[in-house]
Amino acid sequence: MALVSPTITLHPSGAQLPQIGFGTWKHTGAKATEAVYNALKVGYRLIDCATDYANEEACGLGLKKAIDEGVVSRSDVWVVSKLWNTFHHKEHVREAVLKSLRDWGVEYFDLYYIHFPISLAYVSPKERYPPGWFFDAKGTQVIQDPVPLRETWCALEELVDEGLIKHLGISNMASVIITDLLSYARIKPEVLQVEIHPYNVQPKLVHFARTNLLAVTAYSSFGPLGFRELNMTKALDAQPLFTHPMIMDIAGEHHWHLHRMLVSATPAQVILKWAVQRGLAIIPKGDVISQMEENLRVGLGVGGTEAGSQEGGFLLSDAEMERISSLNVGLRFNDPSDDFGCYIFC
Ligand code: NAD
Question: Is the CATH code 3.20.20.100 the one for domain 12-195?
Answer without folding.
Answer: yes
